[in-house]
Design goal:
alpha/beta, 29% helix
Length: 75
């Protein structure tokens, strides 16, 4: 298992984060806007870019630029 940060919470980034989580990795999904990160956290879904796909609670949703820098970042 690796710690991985996906930079960007659009449809591609969200799908990648979900797939990495399902494969056993510790995933952080970084959103540019704090409001977007909070919405994804509360709904466990990215209704704007990937509606209908559940985002597990094990995926860390983050808007702080400094926290994800401690892990490997996938663009």
């Amino acid at each position: 298992m690796k710690k991985v940060t996906v930079a960007g919470s659009g449809s591609w980034g969200t799908a990648l984060a979900v797939m990495l989580d399902k494969n056993g990795h510790e995933v952080t999904l970084w959103a540019r806007r704090p409001q977007e990160a909070e919405k994804i956290k509360s709904l466990h879904e990215n209704t704007e870019y990937l509606p209908g796909v559940k985002i597990n609670e094990s995926i860390n949703i983050e808007a702080d630029r400094q926290k994800p820098l401690r892990t490997r970042i996938l663009w």
